[in-house]
Request: fold
Amino acid sequence: QVQLQESGPGLVKPSETLSLTCTVSGASSSSYFWSWIRQPPGRGLEWIGSIYNSGRTYYNPALKSRVTISGDKSKNQFSLRLSSVTAADTAVYYCAAQEYTWMAVPSWFDYWGQGTLLTVST
Amino acid sequence: QSVLTQPPSVSAAPGQKVTISCSGSSSNIGNNYVSWYQHLPGTAPKLLIYDNDMRPSGIADRISGSKSGTSATLGITGLQTGDEADYYCGTWDSSLTAYVFGTGTKVTVL
Reply:
């Protein structure tokens, strides 16, 4: 069974860089795309980006200039960095394991972490 | 602003059926597989349908998915109070080179 757990600071100041880590058990880095999704309060789900095998990445075009997703195979972890945060980045952040199609593009989300609330405030 | 449009809400009485539409374009639904998720407050989203119409193990057969052209539909029959949740469609958008979620639909059991 694949399990994911997000960890992070909970509170970040405006203009700073948000850093979150997802620890994975029960799967290798080549089994899935590893992804970040968020849900701002009162709004819908928003895909942030995905990484495969600690290499190939895809990012949401609306966030691409501020986002970096990286992987650490030795620790079975992958991470999200989002720079220059504002109050609009306040959200519950989820990490997830994402299947991929025969064309090697991300497809459905199979497993999810429980989510972590990240608040941007002074 | 999502490229996949869903109705904001649908409702029906217990035991009845609801359908949720997800409208997109040729760059997303028209040429890629659709998945559907149930999201209850305070919990992780749950996969209900993948590859347009496939149910993961453990998902009841009263849940169904279909796709036609640039639209997809999720159906829930035998509606139960436990089905009250938000539902999202999702797919890859080949033009954006990005995964996109629908706007979300709140299901209310009357």
Chain B touches chain A through 28 residues (CB under 8 Å). Chain B has a mean pLDDT of 96. The longest strand of chain B covers residues 85-93. The radius of gyration of chain B is 13 Å.
